[in-house]
Amino acid sequence: MNPAPTFSAPLQYDAIIVGAGAAGLFCAAQAGQRGLKVVLIDHAEKVAEKIRISGGGRCNFTNRDLDVRAPHKHYVGQNPQFCRSALSRYTPADFIALLEQHRIPYEEKHKGQLFASRSAEDIIRMLLAECATGKVEHWQPCSVKKVSFLASNADTASAGRYEVHTDRGMVTAPNLVIATGGLSIPKIGATDFGYRVAQQFGLPLVERRPGLVPLTFDGQHWQAYAQLAGLALPVEISTGSKKERMSFHEDLLFTHRGLSGPAVLQISSYWKEGTPLQINLLPGTDMADVLQQAKAHSRKLVTNELATHMPTRLADAWTAQQPDLQRPINETSDKALTRLAEQLSRWEITPSGSEGYKKAEVTLGGVDTKALSQQTMECKSQPGLYCIGEVVDITGWLGGYNFQWAWASAFACAQAMAQAAAATKA
Ligand code: FDA
Questions:
Q1: Which atom of ligand 1 is the closest one to the Cα of 58?
Q2: Beta strand 11-12 with 169-173: parallel, antiparallel or unpaired?
Q3: Which one of 141, 267, 296, 361 is most buried, by most CB atoms within 10 A?
């Protein structure tokens, strides 16, 4: 990292990029390598902390199953089609090729998810090396105090340029890239900077809320399940009315305060406050039939019968709440068994809230895509101002889709800035 000199006269660049996370680092590298003079500014002590902690420290950097022709399958936002152009111009295969060029080993895990085999540090080192190749100036930690734009008809040397006042002095450029991400995990540097700059320039924002986040239940309601903390099982989880119903087949994890695991993180991006979740705790099993067959042949307690199909602790907690199930299965009424089968295949519960930004992996909402060009990420009403990565109202599913959006939107922006610079010089 650079030492922290301060400058009195404004330094001139082709592009100022604020935010040295996934999108900012990649954009800086790509723009620098296309000949632009780039300064990359971030206020955090450590570079790219989110990459470092992602994927359990191994960074799930992309997903092979991404269908670039149908981004709505894996992205959430008011207009998921917006990301189609960028995603199809910089694909998972392109990022994989970059990793291979840097000889970084990676492996595929669940459902097309690609992880660094050794550590997320490999990805950070690669991005920093790419920035070095592009001769990017990297100021970190460095706070941004103020951003302004001087109209092209202004009577000053900075006309048509952005001025960014930082604690190391002022920098100016015709291009300003907002790559400051979302609000999740404030303790490692997340701020609302991007949204504030967007508002300053009159860009519309889509309401923000935590996504890919554990869901919580009120204490009394959850008492019976709190003892199950740590227990995981595969489920089918759904939410939403018929027309907009979303379902995922993933693992569910019980926690002290509610539910987590991939199933719940995925559904949380679609869940609306006050509405229920439906969970099939035994997907692929016809429990009504299983219980009737058991009744005909077995004298085991209902809980022991259930425990042959699900974790014992869950079977015990479930039957403990219902006196008419605390007996041998052959002595249990058909009505009670039918009700049990229905409960297990359609457990309906309404979360009271979520764990919020301190645990969320992403922020839903953000800069409204209507304000941006889908080819370049440039603001339609504010030439030279670009928004990339998570600050935009595009949120991916769990599984590498968010980093792929960061790489692709950064690439589109860098390419556009370089083309615009070349056109100006010609
Ligand atoms: P990112 O958050 O990466 O970078 C923003 C940068 O802006 C930060 O460096 C921050 O310090 C800086 N900044 C903020 N405010 C500023 C200010 N006022 N002044 C200067 N700088 C400022 N995704 C995925 O695809 N695979 C995965 O495995 C994971 N795993 C994962 C785990 C956890 C725990 C979290 C929290 C998130 C993930 N994600 C993920 C999501 C992924 O990390 C996220 O979508 C991307 O990092 C977004 O990239 P950006 O560059 O847009 O923001």
A1: 28
A2: parallel
A3: 267
Contacts of 32 (CB under 8 A, 6+ apart): 38, 131, 133, 134, 135, 136
Alpha carbon of 199 to ligand 1 centroid (Å) = 21
Q: Pocket around ligand 1: residues whose beta carbon is below 6 Å from it?
A: 18-24, 42-44, 50, 53-55, 59-60, 144, 179-181, 184-185, 189-191, 193, 361-362, 389-390, 400-403, 406
284-298: pLDDT as tens digits: 999 999 999 999 999
User: From atom 24 of ligand 1, which residue's Cα is the shortest distance away?
Assistant: 400
3-state secondary structure of 85: helix
Distance 56 CA to ligand 1 centre (A): 14
- Pocket test of ligand 1: the residue of 17, 41, 54 to mutate, having most ligand atoms within 8 Å of its CB, is 54
pLDDT the model gives residue 425: 79
CA of 417 to the centre of ligand 1 (A): 22
- Position 6 scores a pLDDT of 61
Domains and CATH numbers, the chain: 11-209+362-425 (3.50.50.60), 215-354 (2.40.30.10)
Q: Which residue has the tokens 């058909």?
A: 334
pLDDT beneath 50, residues of the chain: none
Closest to 364 measured CA to CA, from 244, 211, 194, 239: 211
pTM for this prediction: 0.95
Residue 5's pLDDT is 62
Substitution candidate for ligand 1 out of 142, 147, 402, 413 with most atoms within 8 A of CB: 402
pLDDT digit string, tens, across residues 145-160: 999 998 877 777 778 8
What is the rounded CA–CA span in Å between residue 272 and residue 274?
Answer: 6
Give strand pairing partners of 11.
171
pLDDT at 8: 64
pLDDT for the residue numbered 208:
98
Alpha-carbon gap, residue 192 to 205, rounded angstroms: 12
Task: Supply the pLDDT for residue 244.
Answer: 87
